[in-house]
Amino acid sequence: MTVETHAEEKLAEVKVILEKEGWLEKADDVVINRFLTADSGHVGHASKRLIKTLKWRETSLPDPMICKACAKDYKSHYLHPVGFDKIGRPVIYSVFALASDYTVAENVDHMIHCFEHAISVMGPDVSKWVWISDFNGFGFRNLNPQIAFAANNLFSIYYPERLGLFVILGAPAMFDALYKMVRPVLDPLTAQKIAFCKSDPGSMKALFSEHFDDELLQWLLNEIAQNTNKQLRSKKKYGGTSITGWGSFDSPEESPCLRPEAVVEGHNMYGTQSFIDFLRAKPLAWQRAFHHYS
Predict the structure, then answer these.
(1) Rounded-to-5 percentages of helix, strand, coil across the chain
(2) Is 266 helix (H, G, I), strand (E, B) or coil?
(3) Lesser CB count within 10 Å: N end or C end of the chain?
(4) In this structure, what are the phi and psi dihedrals at residue 205, rounded to the nearest 5 degrees?
């Protein structure tokens, strides 16, 4: 589903409400359209959700934008953008086998961190991302539904119409119970964007080739294969997302994606070579500037 362009009258009505509440300067027409789409064109609901989101962004986004858990322990999370799909949407990859933190708050912080990173690399006509969740390593310790509920809240309340596709890759049978618990409370628009995929090469190639070019497809196959190998997986030292790493910094050359330990047997864990090149040229102002919502 694409973000609709709503009638000027509806945009104007939302702007009146935003101006009355003192938030008009924080959101442009693109943002207002996105929230109207998420609320099926309902001015009141869209305005309420947008104001709630703007208030949340003012008070809850960390500055600078780093994941404190990953800064303390590089094994905490493994969730970051790795490239772009065929229509320019950032592609996020995560895997349970390389994440050791199971606390709700810290996982939410890392998701916010990752989502803001994905937004920062979007082109002018792109507003959504793709997320591939690799269930390799998923076990009983991951059955806490609170993290799933928190992720759904982020999507539906604070990042509406941002998710383009969510791929659940190789989910084991034990995930069925968790999904049955979470499915009824999923935002209907979010639920429509979930795709299940088996982790065998044929199934992955069939789905990935539909959305990704050859470079990203091969990167994903290599990454997923490495993460099923305990010895190769143990060599990976994730330093945070590929711009911020252990903390904020001003030079792209300091990014962990350019460090020798980012590469395992010729494979850079932070993404495709074209994505790494893109990051090197990308300004780092996104780590600190959240005054305007885009």
Answers:
(1) 50, 10, 35
(2) coil
(3) N
(4) -60, -40
What pLDDT is recorded for position 18? Answer: 95
Query: Across-strand partners of 84?
Result: 90
Distance CA 45, CA 50 (A): 9
171-176, long-range: CB < 8 A, 24+ apart: 171/135, 171/138, 171/196, 172/135, 172/138, 174/138, 174/139, 174/140, 174/143, 175/135, 175/138
| Helix pair 29-38, 43-60: axis angle to 10 deg | 120
Look at the alpha carbons of 232, 276, 72, 155 in this order and tell me if their dihedral is positive or negative. negative
Per-residue pLDDT in tens (0 to 9) along the chain, 294 residues: 455 566 789 999 999 999 999 999 989 998 999 999 988 899 999 999 999 999 998 887 766 567 777 777 778 889 999 999 999 999 999 999 999 888 988 888 888 888 988 988 898 889 999 999 999 999 999 988 888 888 888 888 899 999 999 999 999 999 998 999 999 988 888 889 999 999 999 999 999 999 999 999 999 999 999 999 999 999 887 765 534 433 444 555 666 777 788 899 999 999 999 998 888 776 554 444 333 455
Tokens coding 156: 């539906």
Alpha carbons within 13 A on the beta-carbon side of 69: 20
E strand residue ranges, 90-210? 90-95, 129-134, 163-169, 194-197
| Structure letter (DSSP) for residue 131 | E
> Which amino acid makes up residue 58?
E
The label of the residue with tokens 């069939």 reads: 206
Calpha distance 92→115 (Å, rounded): 9
Q: Across the chain, which distance is largest between two alpha carbons, in Å?
A: 59
CB atoms closer than 10 angstroms to residue 25:
10
- Provide the CB-side half-sphere exposure for 18 (13 A, CA): 26
